[in-house]
Amino acid sequence: MPKSAPVPEDLNPHHIARNQFDEAVPFVEDLKGWKGTSQWLFEPERVVKVTLPVVMDNGEVQIFRGYRVLHNTARGPGKGGIRFYPTVDEDEVKALASWMTWKCAVADIPFGGAKGGVECDTTKLSVDEKRRITRRFVTALGETIGPYTDIPAPDMYTDAETMAWIYDTYAMLHPNAENLGVVTGKPVDLGGIPGRSTATAQGSVFVAEHLLALGAVPGLSQIDGAVVSVQGFGNAGRHASFILRDMGARVVAVSDSKGGVFSRKGLDLEAVEAHKKQTGSVVGTPGTRKIGVKGTLEVPCDILIPAALENQITLGNADKVNAKLVVEAANGPTTPGADRILAAKGIVLAPDILANAGGVVVSYFEWVQNLEHEQWEETVVRDRLRTKMYRATENVLATYRRITERFPEYQERWRKAMPGAKALRKPDMRVAAMATAVGRCKVALDRRGVWP
Ligand code: NAD
């Protein structure tokens, strides 16, 4: 087979975030004073870069690079995960931090956006090395994080244990103070909240369920009986697979960084999980057929859940996506070019800032619980999460329907406001979610005014 030509596409996440922002701005309700505000809203408030010397188990000192970006605090303190991944860099963290701002606004929780990361490969680190990196990172961040300023959480290759180390390090540096609220996603027996580990996946499922109930996905009305494919078998992907299977869906494919597995009659997820625990990968689970790392994205299905990393559905493979609904459990899995292709194919996309907001919503509950010295019940968490996710879905869908119906009006308004600007693209759900979020942040900025 001839090799297909490389597809020219800008995959820089920060550029993609800018593109998404620019596409949404024309649909923000109030454009008054927009020129200055838009720059203010897009640029990060603070970028911290740190160098971390860490003693490895073999006694050698190794240098790691860490980042923490505070994107925008118009609506509240910064909130966002910390990821440990080999390709972490400043532009990725800046993009992820801005998506957190929009996500908190879409979910209507009183936080701004932030994100952090350390460039490292946890698969090659011992637990002790990972703990030393975490402690050194928190120390280097110093006063830039705090319970009322910027509150980290888990992300790729960090988990409740990592959050416990973050809390402990911060508490050592701030003795005689209440510090539990400095980080969320902690273990439940250390100020954590029941339901946090499943929150992102559960939130994605609530969004999918509600979109179907509201008639937003042609040809698909319920999860029961739906065919599902999931990329990623970590926190978000694994839990989403189990939750959907328990609701009656048939999960036919899942994957991790080493490859994917497929079974037409539906995977035995317990067997897949046991195999991954034993061998480190889902690949090779008995009774399954092996597919490629990106194979899950091309499996014919009703619901596709990208739950791994950025830039997975691109100009190179978007035409092969064969789903009715794409639910972005991961951050930034679909490029702007791919968005257009999916829209042209009539595929509905629940964008990341809506679809994976469940994690930050329950993080917010955990933070409130810590500040109030409470311990919430799991049923309370789940009910409140459902309420938040349903409302966010309704709000985004309402925006989508409004801006779609009144598209010519918005076009005309934009032409007048920005003479010579490019013609607007017909909005999709991402544009609607972004316009909802950016509009809410602009309202907050307008109410606060520019200091001094
Ligand atoms: P995780 O570390 O638990 O799992 C990541 C998964 O992705 C693993 O199954 C891994 O094998 C797979 N993966 C890694 N590299 C891959 C590659 N090159 N190709 C295919 N698969 C690959 O991480 P997570 O917490 O589940 O996060 C996954 C995504 O969800 C990320 O985009 C993250 O930002 C997003 N997210 C997570 C949360 C949360 O609460 N954990 C919240 C919001 C968004």
Which helices and strands occur, and which strands form pairs?
Elements: H1 13-24, H2 34-42, E1 46-55, E2 61-72, E3 78-85, H3 90-106, E4 112-119, H4 127-141, E5 150-154, H5 160-173, H6 196-213, E6 227-231, H7 235-246, E7 250-256, E8 259-262, H8 269-279, E9 289-291, E10 303-306, E11 325-327, H9 336-344, E12 348-350, H10 352-355, H11 358-371, H12 378-405, H13 407-417, H14 429-448
Parallel strand pairs: 3-4, 3-5, 6-7, 6-10, 10-11, 11-12
Antiparallel strand pairs: 1-2, 2-4, 7-8, 8-9
Bound molecules: nicotinamide-adenine-dinucleotide.
Residues 154-157, 200, 232-237, 255-257, 293, 307-309, 329-331, 356, 359 line the site of nicotinamide-adenine-dinucleotide.
Radius of gyration, taken over Cα atoms and rounded to an integer in Å:
21 Å
**Largest sheet properties:** 7 strands, mixed
Apparent shape = globular
- Which spans have pLDDT < 50 for at least 5 consecutive residues? none
How many helical stretches?
14
Query: Whole-Å distance between the termini?
Result: 64 Å
> What's the average pLDDT?
96
Give me the strand/helix succession: HHEEEHEHEHHEHEEHEEEHEHHHHH
The structural class is alpha/beta
Identify the strand order in the major beta sheet. 9-8-7-6-10-11-12
